[in-house]
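Please, is this right?
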Amino acid sequence: MHFRDVLDELSRANKKVFTTYDVAKFMGKPIAYASLMLSKSRDVIKIERGVYAVKGADMYEIASNIVFPSYVSLLSGMQYYGLIDQNIIRYSVITLERHKSIPLDRNEIEFRKVKRQLMFGYVNKGGAYIAEPEKLFIDCLYLNVKLQVMLDAMKKANEETMVSAEKLEEYAIRAGRKTLVNKLGFIMESAGMAPERLENHIYRNYVYAEANGKKINKKWRIVYD
C-alpha cells in the first residue's frame, strides 16, 4: 500500500490523528520506514514524537486523540458549544496521566490530570472527544475556572436548553467533591434553574468560590466576589 493510500484509509476510518506504528501496520512495513515516509510527507503535521495528524485536521480532534482516554473541556469546551465569545488558543484536555503541554501552530494543547472517577461524561463528535455540556461545568468547577465565566455560560446554556438540570445534579454528586455541590447549586439557581436535589447534599462549611470573595450566599454557603 502506498503512503498516500494509507492516509486516505486512515481519514476514511475517522482516524486523522495516528502514530508511526499505525502507519507501519497499514503499510506492512518496518516502523523505521513509516517514520521516514512521515518525515518527508507534506500531507501530515507532527504533533509530538511518534504522533502525527493529517494536515487540516480539526484542533479538537487533534487535542483529544493524543492521550487515551481523554477529552476536551474547560474554556475550550465552552468555545466548542458557543458559550463564550473569546477566541481560545489553549485547548484543555482532561486525562488520567500527566503529559507536557504541546505548542501547535499558534495554539497550545494542555493536559489536566484528574482522578479516574472524573473520567466520564464525554462524547465522540466526528472523531473529536468533547465533554458533554453538563460535564463541562463539573470540570470547570473541579478545576477552578472563574465563577463569573461559569455564571454567564450557565445562563446561556439554560436559555438555549443545552443542559439538563437532572444530569447536572447527577454528575455533581457522582464527582464526589462536596464543595462542588455548593458552587453548582449557586450557579444553577443564579441561571434560573431549580437544583432541588442538590439541596440535600450541601456542604455545611462555607466554600470560597474566589479567594478574596466578600459576598455571601447563605443558602448555598458560598463566598464569592
Residues 82 and 123 are 17 Å apart (CA to CA). DSSP finds nine helices and twelve strands in the chain. The first helix runs from residue 3 to 12.
